[in-house]
Design goal:
Layout: H1 7-10, H2 19-24, H3 30-37, H4 39-50, E1 61-65, E2 68-71, E3 76-77, H5 79-83, H6 85-92, E4 96-101, E5 107-111, H7 112-128, E6 136-140, H8 145-156, E7 160-163, H9 170-180, E8 184-188, E9 190-193, E10 196-199, H10 201-210, E11 218-222, E12 236-238, H11 239-242, E13 255-256, E14 260-266, E15 274-279, H12 281-294, E16 303-306, H13 313-325, E17 329-333, H14 344-352, E18 356-359, H15 361-370, E19 385-388, H16 395-405, E20 412-414, E21 449-452, E22 464-469, E23 479-480, H17 484-491, E24 499-507, E25 513-518, E26 522-525, E27 528-531, H18 532-541, E28 545-555, E29 559-568, H19 570-573, H20 579-593, E30 602-605, H21 619-626, H22 642-650
Parallel strand pairs: 4-17, 6-7, 6-8, 8-11, 11-12, 16-17, 16-18, 18-19, 19-20, 29-30
Antiparallel strand pairs: 1-2, 3-13, 4-5, 9-10, 14-15, 15-23, 21-22, 22-24, 24-25, 26-27, 28-29
Helix pairs in contact: 3-4, 4-12, 7-8, 9-10, 12-13, 15-16
Organism: Agromyces allii
Modified residues (N6-acetyllysine): 616
EC number: 6.2.1.1
Length: 651
């Protein structure tokens, strides 16, 4: 596989960490040296340093039956104790664990001691409801403290949680409940979004009527939205009538390191969601290690904020398990960035003196579109590190993020990882790595990455190919729930003992890695392989552009054609009187940056792009439009009406 390279991006300078930052950084180059000398021993040392083991492990890695790995298998620990009890016992019970902010403006500060007590009470309720080790619990909640409590209570008793994002439909929820055979659903009456209450309990009721099984015995409901809900006596229970009144005395049991911790469903090419299974010791080791070192965490002084929802893997690893295992103080926010005003995030940063912010490029580009005057109205100087996650970040967004939000001098770490990897795999280490806008850069210590051609041969020098992980890693998925053959076929069939991530990547002259997006987002135009991410980056590099999404559409002449959907910056949109001329200017720009072969067949200027509530652009819906098909399922969109608006604009 060859990939057209945007050479304009190669000219972007590197940013060296300031001497002050480097002098106080958590990570140093010795981490790379130790991992290089003895990779497996390195992870053993990290796990012993970062976690409390009730029974210390003596076996670090068993890779005798690939692709089924075992890490720290003869050791025992309790994940919730590692996230809570040990911090209280160490004298940090009064440290704030969560600064929670509700969208309407209500707030709660919850200390580690208070969070530990609530998790213990919830654990007692779950046990009383008959939930035990290995049982599955579905969690369908807004971003409220009870979501974190529920996850940790399930982990504490050795059950397995399956968190379902609150934006998913009843059908999606039902399929996940059935696949996991969940015995309990934890939900809320509703939650707040964009100034309104969105109902959750009615969706659960609908899902249970659509469920083909009868595994669910109880539904535990948090009262949040105060919306009316139907009630099934004997099945439904209020959180405030059970958990709030339960005993906070609970003795946690230690479980083996390979004990299942959670199932998280991700989209599958067959249409059936894949239940990605993660276990305990290895997952928590890498989540804690990367959270500490990639974000340069100083738990005594930092206030950390990851804006992800707990319904996604980023929320699991970098809202719940990584930060709490490290004793961090963090912000948890229920609502959207633009409610009740477009500066809400920056208001929260100022109020809580957030020092570390981790968010998605989509959000960054949305703020770019609105203009720098909004963040400039707030004092953001508490920030000392910024992070990016979810998709490749284009250099222009990286630089805007650093200069407008970060004041022009603090590190930005661009992280690559997946639901399946469990934790960050590729990222700069601030204080150690020179930073390069747009590039995820290097594998974190202890991780082995390569780029291969289609035939499995390593790609040398400056070229692109298929991103693979060549050695097992602690937080790797242990399988697809109930389907080991699908696990092997999906991730290991192509290259045997190497995990194929499904992403394209290229290596530049410095040896840094640039992510090119999913391989199925690489187009074949007249025999040339072109990355949608690279063309999107080129479009966003134009001073008119705020955001862009590119898809490959069937074309009789070229096989596939490039079709782009572009949102203009607010300052520019008001000046555009000739949409056709603006589209042509953007087409020429891409051709000039990448080459004539990458010139889009069409550039549609639109006001919005179809996004899920997590901010992910649904490119398959844009592909439907580009190819003249009826638009597919829109139920996961934040605004299901947006496709009609876009359709009207592109006619």
């Amino acid at each position: 596989m060859t990939v057209q390279i945007d050479h304009a991006l190669e000219e972007i300078r590197r940013f060296r960490p300031s001497p002050e930052f480097a002098a106080n950084a958590v990570a140093d180059s010795a981490l790379y040296e130790a991992a290089q000398a003895d990779r497996v021993g390195f992870w053993a040392d990290q796990s012993r340093d970062l976690l409390h083991w009730d029974k210390p492990f003596t076996k670090t890695l068993d890779w005798t039956n690939p692709p089924f790995a075992k890490w720290f298998e003869d050791g025992d620990l309790n994940v919730a104790v590692n996230c809570l009890d040990r911090h209280v016992e160490a004298g940090n019970g009064d440290r704030v664990a969560l600064h929670w902010v509700g969208e309407p403006g209500d707030t709660r500060d919850i200390t580690y001691a208070e969070l530990t007590d609530e998790v213990k009470r919830a654990a007692n309720v779950l046990t009383d409801l008959g939930v035990g080790s290995g049982d599955r619990v579905a969690i369908y909640l807004p971003m409220i403290p009870e979501a974190v409590v529920s996850m940790l209570a399930v982990a504490r008793i050795g059950a397995i949680h399956s968190v379902v994002f609150g934006g998913f439909s009843a059908d999606s929820l039902a399929s996940r409940i059935d696949d996991a055979e969940a015995s309990l659903v934890i939900t809320a009456d509703g939650g707040y979004r964009k100034g309104k209450v969105f109902a959750l309990k009615p969706v659960v009721d609908d899902a249970l009527t659509k469920s083909v099984g009868d595994s669910v015995r109880n539904v535990l409901v948090v009262k949040r939205g105060e919306n009316e809900v139907e009630w099934t006596e004997g099945r439904d229970l209020w959180w405030h009538e059970t958990v709030a009144t339960a005993s906070s005395e609970h003795e946690a049991q230690a479980f083996e390191a390979e004990h299942p911790l959670f199932i998280l469903y991700t989209s599958g090419t067959t249409g059936k969601p894949k239940g990605i299974l993660h276990t305990s010791g290895g997952y928590l080791t890498q989540a804690a290690f990367t959270h500490k070192n990639v974000f340069d965490l100083h738990p005594e002084t930092d206030v950390y904020w990851c804006t992800a929802d707990v319904g996604w893997i980023t929320g699991h690893s970098y809202v719940v398990y990584g930060p709490l295992a490290n004793g961090a103080t963090q912000v948890l926010y229920e609502g959207t960035p633009d409610t009740p005003h477009p500066g809400r995030w920056w208001e929260i940063v100022e109020q809580y003196k957030v020092s570390i912010l981790y968010t998605a490029p989509t959000a960054i580009r949305s703020f770019m579109k609105l203009g720098r005057q909004i963040p400039h109205a707030f004092n953001l100087r508490s920030l000392r590190l910024l992070g990016s996650v979810g998709e490749p970040i284009n250099p222009e967004a990286w630089i805007w993020y650093r200069h407008v939000i970060g004041g022009g001098s603090i590190p930005v770490v661009d992280t690559w990882w997946q639901t399946e990897t469990g934790a960050i795999m590729i990222s700069a280490l601030p204080g150690v790595t020179d930073l390069k806008p747009g590039s995820a850069q290097v594998a974190v210590p202890g991780i082995s990455i390569d780029i291969l051609a289609d035939d499995g041969t390593p790609v040398e020098g400056e070229d692109g190919g298929l991103l693979v992980i060549t050695e097992p890693w602690p937080s790797m998925l242990r399988g697809i729930w109930g389907d080991p053959e699908r696990f092997k076929e999906t991730y290991w069939e192509k290259f045997g003992d190497k995990y194929f991530a499904g992403d394209g990547a290229r290596r530049d002259a410095d040896g840094d890695i640039w992510l090119l997006g999913r391989v199925d987002d690489v187009m074949n135009v007249s025999g040339h392989r072109l990355s949608t991410a690279e063309i999107e980056s080129s479009l966003v590099a134009h001073p008119w552009t705020a955001e862009a999404a590119v898809v490959g559409a069937a074309d009789e002449t070229t096989g596939q054609a490039v079709v782009a959907f572009v949102i203009l910056k607010a300052s520019q949109a008001a000046q555009v009187t000739d949409v056709a001329a603006a589209s042509e200017e953007l087409r020429k720009h891409v051709a000039g940056q990448i080459g004539a072969i990458a010139r889009p067949r069409q550039v549609f200027i639109v006001n919005e792009l179809p996004k899920t509530r997590s901010g992910k652009i649904m490119r398959r819906l844009l592909r439907d439009l580009a190819e003249g098909r009826e638009v597919g399922d829109t139920t996961t969109l934040a605004d299901t009406s947006i496709m009609q608006v876009i359709s009207d604009q592109v006619k």
